[in-house]
Amino acid sequence: MKTFFAILALLASMSCVNASTFFPTDTTFHYQNRTVVIHEQQDEINVSVYRHNEAGDTIKSNKIYEGIFTDDKSVERRYENRFDILVPDIFKPKDKRKIAASHWAGFGVGFSNLPDGWNFEGEMASALNLSRSLQYNLNFVDNCWSLGDHGLSLVTGFGIQFNSMHLETNKYMEVIDYKTLISNTEEELNKSRLHFTYLTFPLLLEVNFPVGCTETLFLNAGVVGKIKTASSSKIWVNENGKERKIKQPGDLNIRPATFDFLLQAGVGEVGLFVSYTPLTLFLHNKGPEANQGTVGLQLYF
Question: Residue 117's closest CA among 195, 198, 173, 185?
Fold first, then answer.
């Protein structure tokens, strides 16, 4: 290929001295599986090379080389697979920019709440320590498909959601007769935690708006399917001046599959998110009636 381009450059350079001696005003010839088009206009020689398809027909949109030669300078360009020259959106008028972006992959943390529920004794069971109840989102990959020329795209991906719900002092969750209850104890607990983890699969609609030359303002919303992978209830107690961790036995009756409504908004690689789970955390008649809501900050990869 280097030899081929060297020959072309030599021929074109010689043509600049007296183009009519070597070629007519427009000349086309074939070399192996390539077509070479030489065009002369005033004192400029343009040499373009196109690739052939399997049938032997020339596909002129598949340009692989272009050289422009004059008496005092030359410019050469090589193309990978296509003739199109992609102009970055930041150089286009705002009304002609096509922005297709996705904001899912990244890491986020937010404060979670389980609105007041009722246990099976009819007692109020609001028991969360809201300042320590957190949700962690680790989203590995995402993908998007542009929907038209207005910056709207469809976003999917994959991630893991970790939930760590801390209960108030001397309250903990346990399973009695296959039902999950919030119980009280007179024993002093250092802490009590409910933990559950999901695999997450989003389906979001996202719209992006250019802000300045390099950043975009984004807004996306949709649903996130969730499949439970683990759950546990643990307490930490003092025994002889030492802290001991105790895991509560039994299945916690957390739903094996559920979904969130998700709303995200931000600029560039930083955003806020709000999520809400319309289905109760526990299976029907197997635990307190409680729906999870979370507000947090997300950093995108």
Answer: 173
Cβ(33)–Cβ(52) below 8 Å: yes
How far apart are the C-alpha atoms of 283 and 231, rounded to whole Å? 14
Q: How far is the CA of 38 from the CAs of 30, 34, 85, in angstroms?
A: 11, 13, 20
Characterize 134-163 residue by residue with b for buried, 16 or more Cβ atoms within 10 angstroms of its Cβ, and e for exposed. Answer: bbebebeebebeeeeeebbbbbbbebebbb
Position 28 pLDDT exceeds 50: yes
146 CB-side CA count, 13 A: 10
pLDDT in tens, 116-163: 554 444 343 457 788 889 999 999 999 989 887 777 899 999 999 999
pLDDT tens track for 155-203: 999 999 999 988 887 788 888 888 888 877 777 777 888 899 999 999 9
Tokens for 12?
């074109």
Q: By CB neighbour count within 10 A (0-12 exposed, 13-18 middle, 19+ buried), where does 68 fall? A: middle
Q: Helix, strand or coil for residue 81?
A: coil
Q: Is the pLDDT of residue 298 over 70?
A: yes
Backbone angles phi, psi at 89, to 5 degrees: -60, -30
Looking up tokens 């990978």, which residue turns up? 80
Distance CA 80, CA 87 (A): 16
Cα separation, 45 vs 43, in Å, equals 7
Round to whole Å and give the CA distance between 276 and 292: 6
DSSP 86: P
Identity at 45, one-letter amino acid code: I
pTM of the model: 0.63
| Length in residues, the chain | 301
